[in-house]
Amino acid sequence: MKSLLIVAAALMTSWIAPLAQANEDPLLDEARKVAMSLPPKLQATLQAEIVKSDFQGAITACKEMAPKIAGEISKESGWKIKRVSLKARNDARATPDAWEKAALEAFDKRAAAGESPAKLEKGERIGSEYRYVKALPVQALCLGCHGKPDQITPEVKAALSQHYPQDQATGYSEGEIRGAITIRKTLP
C-alpha cells in the first residue's frame, strides 16, 4: 500500500509540474530568459579582463562593456534591459525608479527572512508595459570590486575612485543582493 501511494504521488507530481509550467505567464517566462542572458555574457567579459589586467581592467570593462552587452540584448530581444542597485556605483545608469526601488527593498526583506537571493524576482503588467526584475546576488568574482574594504586592493580602490567618485557599491559579502537586472517591454 505504501509503495502504491508513493507511485501515485509521483504520477500526480509529474502531471502537476507541467500543468503549473503551462499555466505560467508567457511574458514572465520570456522576461526571465531575456534577463538571465546578461549575467553569463558579462561574467565571461569580466573574467577575461581580470585574467588580462586584474580587477583594475575589469572596472573599465564593466563600465564600458556592460551597457554595450545590455544594449545588444535589448536590440535583439525588444526588451529594455539594465542593472540597478540601492547602492549605485554609477548614479546615471544604476539608480532604480520607484517600482524598481520597491522591488529591491522587498527582495532585501525576503532575503533577510531566509529566501534565497538567487530566486528573488518580480514580474507584472503595468499599464501598457510588462516589467520584470531579478535580484543579483554577489558572487565570489564580484568581491574584488564590490567586497568589504579589506578585500579590495589599493589599486582597485584608486581606480574606483577615479571612475566613480560617488561610488556606494562596496562592502558586500558573497550571497548578498548587490542589485538587480530590470527589464521592460511595451505591449501591443
C-alpha geometry: globular
Low-pLDDT windows of residues: 1-23
Q: What is the average per-residue confidence, as pLDDT, rounded to a whole number?
A: 87
What is the count of DSSP helices, taking H or I runs of 4+ residues? 7
* Residue fraction in strands: 15-25%
Order of helices and strands: HHHEHHEEHHE
Number of strands: 4
The biggest sheet amounts to: 4 strands, antiparallel
Widest sheet, order of strands:
1-4-3-2
Walkthrough of the structure:
With 188 residues, this protein is α+β, with helices and mostly antiparallel strands. Helix content is 56%, strand content 16%. The chain contains seven helices and four strands; from the N terminus they run αααβααββααβ. It has helices at 2-23, 26-35, 38-77, 91-94, 98-112, 143-146, 154-163; strands at residues 80-84, 121-126, 129-137, 177-186. It starts with a helix and ends with a strand.
Brief synopsis:
The chain has 188 residues and is an alpha+beta fold. It is built from 7 helices and 4 strands; from the N terminus they run H-H-H-E-H-H-E-E-H-H-E. The protein has helices at residues 2-23, 26-35, 38-77, 91-94, 98-112, 143-146, 154-163, and strands spanning 80-84, 121-126, 129-137, 177-186.
Sequence-ordered SSE layout with sheet pairings:
Layout: H1 2-23, H2 26-35, H3 38-77, E1 80-84, H4 91-94, H5 98-112, E2 121-126, E3 129-137, H6 143-146, H7 154-163, E4 177-186
Antiparallel strand pairs: 1-4, 2-3, 3-4
